[in-house]
């Protein structure tokens, strides 16, 4: 079997992550996978695998889960510290016909408890570290069974005790039934549980499969995405079927990342926008950790032009490109565009791209007043295609309220230019009166003031636009430089500087704007 045949099979029969490792091994079992950390569930395995070895390990873990009592159609919640074994255990759960529910390790105990209650006594797969963090929860009431990946704890079952269990035949989930459940970022409250099916997961590969076809030779692919995110499913599937050696990363510290890139020299890097932003200063590293990268790719959130420009300039590859994809967990990739080295730094950061090739998502912008959406009068961005998530688990009415027939309301506002490019201005809930686009202000100011490491415009106590900023190494802001740079944004209030460590973030490193605004309003005046 070759990768194209496997891809076509997925398009017809759906993406079943329980079958994926074996399918990838049939394509090329020697494809290497390098980790930057040890696996909690299988610490003896080490950090260098092949795809064939991966398939064997997933089969072994599936046998252990079956021996622990996990059965088809059951929900298995995975909530443990960040580690590549989250993805492997999700594949193993899928292989025995269960539905893995992937919860971010960054969720607090109260939120985890609320989600367990919503699922109604699922099995919980966790670790000793998270058990301590969830100590305040009545797990015996919220979970039908608690399984830990290793070690021993009262009232739990350890997967380690089932090592060497008899292998079981894989169970294939129905094409349009739940296959994997992930969750939204939770920037506006308790996260929603997003239900993905084999069909929706498979269809979402279409635009990226064509994009990866641009790579003419096998090169190392560095992936730095939360292991619990639906995007990680797509990224791993595409890399393995394309026979690309994978560097699967957990570390985000710039110094560690630099060393990893120097040792592995990736040709493609896919990472969170805020991770890439945090790695910007590596462009000045004399060891040139980004020299080998020809393709940068990022999704989840729009990325600042300054970051793209610096990264592309640091590459020594001819024709280096930065691919930005705009989408959501509910819709997958919606639009995208490529940026080039000579122009990325001066690009309009609000231009998130054009609709993908035929067979991909359709996008429209709807204005409630019936007028043509413009920058001054933006409309609501909606997406339609068969790859839309099936539902929100336990919240069908909430899901239905976002649907307009075949169209899904993203919650973002924007407009199409006369050239057909989608400009995303803001989340509707984050719009600030008198400011056309908070995100545009952030793009411009980050470009003008190199000392800024982050800038977020939020609602003040009187609905004014308050810029909250962080500087490199938390150095004091030069207010004179700020006032000069912000002169053409008269609607902005005085800035508030905070240490970057105090920024409330989601599991994908997005700033929780509403939470940040609430903190500012509750802060004593002399601290602002």
Short description:
This is Long-chain fatty acid--CoA ligase. Residues 45-393 form the AMP-dependent synthetase/ligase domain. This protein is of the alpha/beta class and 528 residues long.
Structure description:
With 528 residues, this protein is of the alpha/beta class. The protein has three domains: 187 residues, Rossmann fold; 177 residues, ANL, N-terminal domain (Rossmann fold, 3-Layer(aba) Sandwich), CATH 3.40.50; 85 residues, ANL, C-terminal domain (GMP Synthetase, Chain A, domain 3). The model has no long low-confidence stretch (mean pLDDT 91). One of its GO terms (molecular function) is ligase activity. Keywords: Ligase. This is Long-chain fatty acid--CoA ligase. It holds the Pfam family AMP-binding.
Present the secondary structure layout.
Elements: H1 3-13, H2 20-28, E1 32-35, E2 48-50, H3 51-68, E3 75-78, H4 85-95, E4 99-102, H5 109-119, E5 123-126, H6 128-133, H7 139-142, E6 145-148, E7 157-158, E8 180-183, E9 193-196, H8 198-203, H9 206-212, E10 221-224, H10 230-241, E11 246-248, H11 254-264, E12 268-271, H12 273-278, E13 295-298, H13 305-314, E14 321-328, E15 332-340, E16 351-355, E17 362-366, E18 379-384, E19 391-392, H14 396-401, E20 403-404, E21 407-416, E22 422-427, H15 438-448, E23 452-459, E24 465-471, H16 479-485, E25 496-497, H17 513-521
Parallel strand pairs: 1-11, 3-4, 3-5, 5-6, 6-7, 10-11, 10-12, 12-13, 13-14, 24-25
Antiparallel strand pairs: 1-2, 8-9, 9-19, 14-15, 15-16, 16-22, 17-18, 18-21, 20-21, 21-22, 23-24
Helix pairs in contact: 2-3, 3-4
């Amino acid at each position: 079997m070759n990768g194209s045949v496997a891809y076509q099979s997925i398009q017809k029969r759906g993406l079943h992550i329980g079958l994926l490792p074996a399918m990838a091994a049939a394509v090329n079992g020697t494809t290497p996978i390098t980790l930057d950390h040890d696996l909690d569930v299988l610490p003896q395995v080490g950090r260098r695998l092949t795809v064939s070895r991966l398939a064997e390990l997933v089969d072994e873990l599936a046998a252990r889960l079956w021996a622990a009592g996990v059965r088809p159609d059951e929900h298995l919640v995975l909530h443990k510290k960040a580690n590549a074994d989250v993805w492997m255990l999700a594949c193993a759960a899928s292989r025995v016909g269960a539905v893995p529910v992937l919860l971010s390790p960054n969720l607090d105990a109260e939120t985890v408890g609320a989600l367990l209650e919503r699922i109604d006594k699922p099995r919980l797969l966790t670790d000793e570290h998270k058990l301590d963090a969830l100590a305040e929860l009545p797990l015996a009431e919220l979970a039908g069974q608690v399984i830990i990946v290793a070690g021993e704890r009262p009232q739990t079952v350890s997967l380690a005790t089932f090592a060497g269990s008899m292998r079981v035949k894989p169970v294939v989930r129905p094409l349009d039934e739940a296959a994997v459940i992930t969750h939204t970022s939770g920037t506006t409250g308790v996260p929603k549980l997003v239900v993905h099916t084999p069909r929706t997961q498979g269809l979402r590969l279409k635009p990226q499969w064509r994009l990866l076809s641009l790579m003419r030779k096998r090169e190392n692919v560095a992936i730095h995405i939360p292991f619990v995110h639906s995007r990680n499913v797509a990224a791993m599937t595409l890399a393995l079927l394309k026979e690309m050696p994978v560097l699967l990363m957990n570390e985000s510290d710039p110094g560690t990342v630099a060393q990893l890139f120097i040792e592995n020299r990736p040709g493609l890097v896919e990472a969170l926008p805020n991770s890439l932003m945090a790695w910007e200063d590596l462009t000045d590293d004399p060891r040139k950790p980004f020299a080998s990268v020809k393709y940068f790719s990022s999704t989840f959130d729009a990325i600042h032009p300054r970051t793209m420009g610096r990264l592309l300039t640091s590459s020594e590859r001819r024709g280096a490109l930065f691919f930005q994809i705009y989408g959501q967990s509910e819709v997958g990739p919606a639009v995208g565009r490529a940026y080039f080295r000579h122009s990325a730094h001066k690009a309009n950061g609000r231009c998130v791209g054009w609709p993908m090739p035929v067979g991909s998502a359709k996008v429209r912008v709807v204005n409630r007043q019936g007028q043509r959406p413009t920058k001054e009068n933006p409309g609501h961005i909606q997406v339609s295609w068969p790859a839309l998530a099936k539902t929100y688990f336990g919240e069908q009415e909430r899901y239905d309220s976002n649907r307009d027939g075949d169209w899904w309301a993203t919650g973002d506002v924007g407009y199409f230019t006369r050239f057909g490019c989608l400009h995303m201005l803001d989340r509707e809930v984050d719009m600030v009166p008198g400011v056309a686009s908070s995100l545009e202000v952030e793009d411009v100011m980050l470009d003008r003031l190199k000392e800024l490491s982050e800038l977020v415009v939020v609602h003040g106590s009187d609905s004014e636009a308050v810029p909250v900023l962080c500087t490199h190494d938390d150095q004091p802001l030069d207010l004179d430089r700020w006032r000069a740079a912000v002169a053409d944004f008269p609607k902005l209030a005085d800035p508030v500087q905070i240490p970057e460590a105090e920024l409330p973030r989601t599991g994908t490193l997005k700033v929780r704007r509403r939470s940040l605004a609430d903190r500012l309003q509750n802060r004593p005046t002399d601290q602002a």
